Amino acid sequence: MTPLRATVRLQFHPEFTLDDALLLLDYFADLGISHVYASPLLTAKPGSTHGYDVIDPTRIDPELGGEPAFDRLVSGLRARNMGLILDIVPNHMAVTHLNPWWRSVLEWGRASPYAEFFDIQWDSPNPLLKGRVLLPILATDYAAELSAGELKVVLDQKAGQFCLHYFDHRVPLTPPSYGSILQHTQDARLNDLGIRFDALEDAADPLSQASALCQELVALCQEGPTDDLIHYALAHFNPDPQEAGERHDRLHQLLERQHYRLANWRTANDEINWRRFFDINELISLRAERGDVFEASHAKVFQLISDGKVDGLRIDHIDGLANPRAYCRRLRRRVEQICAPDALPFPIHVEKILGAGEVLEPQWGADGTTGYEFMNQVSLLQHDPMGGHPLQAHWHRLTGRPANFMREVEQARRLVLTHSLASDFDSVSDNLLQIARADLATRDITLNAIRRGLLELVAHFPVYRTYAAAAGRSQADEAVFQQALQGAKNSLPEADSALLEQLNAWLGAEPLAQLPPGPYRSLRQRTLTRFHQLTAPAAAKAVEDTAFYRYGALLSRNDVGFDPQHFASSIEAFHAFNVARALACPNSLLATATHDHKRGEDTRARLPVVSERSAWYTEKTRQWRNLAAPLRSQMAEEQAPSPADELMLFQSILASWPLDLDIEDSAQRQDYAQRLQGWQEKALREAKLHSGWTAPNRTYEEACQQYLKALFEQPEATPLRTSLAKAADELAPAGALNGLAQCLLKLCCPGVPDFYQGTEFWDFSLVDPDNRRPVDYPARIAALAEPVSERELLMHWRDGRIKQYLIARTLQQRKADPQLFSSGSYLPLEMEGSQKHQALAFLREYQGRLLLVLVPRLASDLVARQAFPQVAVERWGDTRIQMPGHLKDRTWTSVLGPTQQHSGQETLTVGTLLAPFPVALLISS
């Protein structure tokens, strides 16, 4: 097997299977990829487009080809000396009857062997949920659905099991309740069987006895006459919508015997008594901290590792786990037990959002993150700090929304905590009340006071979560908590200060190890864990899924792992990030596009050019808003789209306008408009201002849709769309140069470059599902196989082959000298001259071998009025790289563009190095 060198992330689903990927391996190998990085492959819900809704973690998904196709893919990888990294989901599973673990819980409640696998509050204070789970699947209220006859009891004759049918839902009935159905059959054998089903409630081994009784029922059904009798019995429970009374009562009494409570789907946010993945009713959290759950949910993964078929793991949403550190350490130990002593290092990467100043704890034993922070670091580098304030002021002036992003975040956190995450928030609040009542000194603290304090504390949390354990908080966590505490104090009346200090003590400042073992300590531990598992989804839902769609000073700063409050950073800061990564996580993944990104990597690279041209942008948007006035709809006291929604749309068009779109071609325009409509619908609903997912404002959405349709179709909108297209084209060369620079930095900075499917060509995608469209691999394969001059690539840069060339050439160099890239030290280089702030350079050095990387930045003025994404030599003027004294005699050979050699000097001329190609990579040995 080859060491980890470069990965390609592939999204598997029924339309792109394991055998489809097998056909692409030659292409990936030729490109220089060492590992395929696969989306989850264990069995997910039928038709799943992503694989994160697992229903059976014990087998490869048959819709992807199952075990045979998986083995074919692994064999193909091995034949090409390539590896496989597998994305796994330890946090949650799908809520469906197709999930055997969940089905068992619905059938048997706390008696199920899987009752403790899921994060269920069995001892709910709600009497209707005591020992039961809330099942919020009904379209309307329970009584209405009961009366409408939509709930029907059905017998599965092949399995001998009764279940409830509700549209696409199949909800099992608990076997001890079968007797109440079978007693209506008027058949002695079935009545006797019903009595024995009734007796299961007091049986010593009800599950195995139920299985035997179900087989008896199957046998009786096969005899024939009983079939009509059972249908007759079921008629006593399935209400006729035209009738009322007894049938409704019988069905209700039958459902009252179940281990679940059927409810309107809208009750979930307030009453659900099991922890969801974020606020998704279809995903239930697993308790991976339990040893039995860990082993059962990872058994197949461990088998694949033991068989030598999986070479690395990506852990989904690590912060959703009760104890990420303990999980990672346990996983590392198990992997080391499985792998041969002489095996290559087994990489484990965690999906972790790092806040400003936050680092991945080395004690976790992970190799690094999945690379969101690198996306952010490159983005910060490519934004002009001088554009931040003008763009924020323009946004506020035009829309009335806050110029300060954190104000949007705080408002959004309060919203999600009191709405979509209300049940999680209530659970922590109730636990804190129990803690308060357990001590005479605090028993007068009220629930409302706790809720006020907790709400503001979480609203001001600067990171996803902290990790306080028995010994209390780490120094880093203490700093985070104190920042949140101060924010809460500033927001609350002074009278609540004492309460906040008490919350501080209960939520980690007072180490649990100081408490005597017992129920109180256990309560404190549960509460602390729940708090940790509340701040993470609150951050994700408030920032990524709300504030990012409310705040639009410049959308290129709104992406996963980004903080729009930090608009730009210096060259020195970027170097510092790389030095730190080289020391702490040299094998961390470096991503610039993912399946979760808000904008494609080149969409995101074009828009920062606006930060260099804020005055131009301000004037353009004024013109566009005037031109768009006839397209807007007047709705009561507002227009549709609102100024904020309109401005975000303009930015999205500027950023994603396809390089090959013919504005005169109506079919092309309509195709692009349809993509934008998908983005627009999601943006409006995620913002939760004019519409939302739970209660879509169809009138407002349709008005926005008509606006967008008119913009791309109506003759009256020709001046507006022409101006937008021209502006996008004006930004495109500098944006493409940013894209090439971003790509080379990913390839050469400390870490492992990760490529999202299809991004070898330009990636002007929008948020999912736009970023998961089928990839035109035949075009990419043909382009890689065709010899072409660098000059031709530059002349035809719009087709994307220039980016693929950059990737292939650099990956070939990584393959030729892997240790230079993986273990080489990182040395920032100083620039001098008139354009010294518009270029960045660094060295990587390993045992005397060197590579030099040089990329332009903030080069909009340098490529102005040019048709190509390259700075003309003369525009660099006297800009030079200062070389360290011990390297001034080295000779440098270019890797990109025609092969050239540069003799060693004390300084290297930037214009000369960048003459053959827009970015430069040189080597010296």
UniProtKB/TrEMBL annotation:
Gene3D superfamilies: Glycosidases, Maltooligosyl trehalose synthase, domain 2
Matching InterPro entries: GH, GH13_cat_dom, Trehalose_TreY
Organism per entry: Halopseudomonas pelagia
Protein's GO biological process: alpha-glucan catabolic process; trehalose biosynthetic process
Signal sequence annotation: none
Pfam families (UniProt xref): Alpha-amylase (PF00128)
Annotated SUPFAM superfamilies: (Trans)glycosidases
One MF term in the entry's GO annotations: (1,4)-alpha-D-glucan 1-alpha-D-glucosylmutase activity
Glycosyl hydrolase family 13 catalytic domain span: 11-489
Protein name listed in UniProt: Malto-oligosyltrehalose synthase
UniProt lineage: Bacteria, Pseudomonadati, Pseudomonadota, Gammaproteobacteria, Pseudomonadales
